[in-house]
Amino acid sequence: MLWTDLAALLERGEDSTLEFKREAPHPDAIAAEIVAFANAAGGTILFGVEDDGRIRGIEDKKLEERLVSICRQNVDPPIIPVITKLKNNGLQVLALYIPKNPSVVSTQDGKYYLRVGSTKRQPSKEELARLFQRARQIQFDETVIEAAKLDDVELARVEVFLQGLKQPTLGESKLPIENLLLNLRILKSAERGVFPSVAGLLAFGKNPHFFLPGVEIQAAHYRSGSRTSEVLDQKTIRGTVAEQINDAVSFVQKNMRVGSIIKGVKRVEFPEYSLEAVREALTNAVAHRNYSLLGSGIRLFMYADRLEVLSPGGLPNTLTLEGIKVVPFARNQLLASYLSGMGYMEKRGEGILRMIDWSRKNQAPEPKFELPADELFQVTLFKRVSSDQESQA
Fold first, then answer.
1. What CATH number is attached to the domain comprising 303?
2. What is the pLDDT of residues 351-385, one digit of tens each?
3. Global pTM exceeds 0.70
4. Cα 342 to chain center, whole Å?
């Protein structure tokens, strides 16, 4: 870093990636700043600079050594900082750069912090869950919901699931029901007892939306190609993940047109959308959405020329838009395993390719996959290109 770079930083002022320190305070305070940067986008702390950007310089000759020690001993896991010394007119500024950490970082006493704007703060429960999910240290769908209990699980749904897998049912098993549900990870042990998992309630709960607000599909059918046009039909779809998929497919089937031609004495129908492709898009949305984003639901929009499925959470891990066509992925592995056992998903990870293939077979343009905003993934299915001979129903 050159002094010209420093001047630009000082002029910019403190923000989400830059902090000024007149001197190094207590190690715990510095560790908290380091943790906040490491859990966010990374950043730089300039020592020897007043809050208003004036350079005062540092006199502590052992500051660099102290900072290295703090990064190793007061931060968990330890991080390797980049430290640069800058001098001008006898004044020295020390720049401590903290990179964004791939894992979740805490202070030595187990406290987590995030850099938000020009300040640090402790994350909310939902923000902390997303941090761990980003780091792939836990899967959110395997966390427990302590407000729920065994009675909130619909055992009849579990019975049907086990029958489909050709496994001993709850009545046939020699294990107590709680133990069997623990084995299936529908229930999970926690410090305060045994509670349903997020995935367990999503797949087998009596009322998942009560415990997970926003676990729903907001469906709407518009007259033209814009959301400002007349709404022809709309519905809020709730329930288990299977119920959401089935009801959303039914909504599309109800609102789409079906073309047909007469071949010989038979009528051959051509739906506007491949229902197989629609089901796949909705299944993917339900299976892979980010459930830690509470209050944010899946949106299903039908327009005059296309159908959009918008799923909260963007792409998991390090996947790209091209990669999703060839790389199997599952943000919610436990939930995906339930959906696979119910027959909604294949374990080979070919759902995107099947969606493309079904659209082509229906003589529709290839689906589009986009990231229109942060924490949002969108699939667009296009209408079938009708032939002149087709009549519409």
1. 3.30.565.60
2. 788 899 989 998 899 999 999 987 899 999 999 88
3. no
4. 23
